[in-house]
């Protein structure tokens, strides 16, 4: 298999077949919290793409050139990665507060919560030291920086696509003749379950 094919499968596997929201069920807090509005969902998706890409680049370098050579990686990688992610989220928060106060207020508590979003930490960890999420792709024991970034881009695009899709679905559901007992959160959970089944149905695509 050529390198391009491997990278394409890595991207598709991370974005769709192993979607971190709807097949791994990681990072569900913003999925339900900000999906009630399309503009907020798009803003959150872009923020997560930026934070994930920057976090994976930084954590990959810290793991490869600092933690692993010093032999302290297994003990310190979680606090080190959380510190990097928290710094990046603070940067995004300051930028949005200045550049887009409306979007900043719309995101509310969910923007700083990206710091504790387990999807960001899980992706950064998998990019630096793969093995937790099993994907049927013949890669080495560790990812190169390019592979780590392709993987992270796939995860973050998959996160954003699922979030925006769900937001569009919820906006349609608000106008649909849903029984009163199912209005709001109940129908949202049912729709999320059906969306998750659709993603799980992709299992096995391209041998992934």
Describe the structure.
It is a single chain. The protein has helices at 3-17, 28-33, 38-70, 73-99, 101-107, 118-128, 145-175, 185-200. The protein contains eight helices and no strands.
Give the topology, please.
Elements: H1 3-17, H2 28-33, H3 38-70, H4 73-99, H5 101-107, H6 118-128, H7 145-175, H8 185-200
Helix pairs in contact: 1-7, 3-4, 3-6, 3-7, 4-5, 4-6, 6-7, 7-8
Précis, in short:
The protein has helices at residues 3-17, 28-33, 38-70, 73-99, 101-107, 118-128, 145-175, 185-200. With 208 residues, it is an all-alpha fold.
Features:
8 helices, 208 residues, mainly alpha
Helix content: over 70%
Shape: globular
Q: DSSP strand (E) fraction?
A: under 5%
Number of helices: 8
**Separation of the first and last Cα atoms:** 14 Å
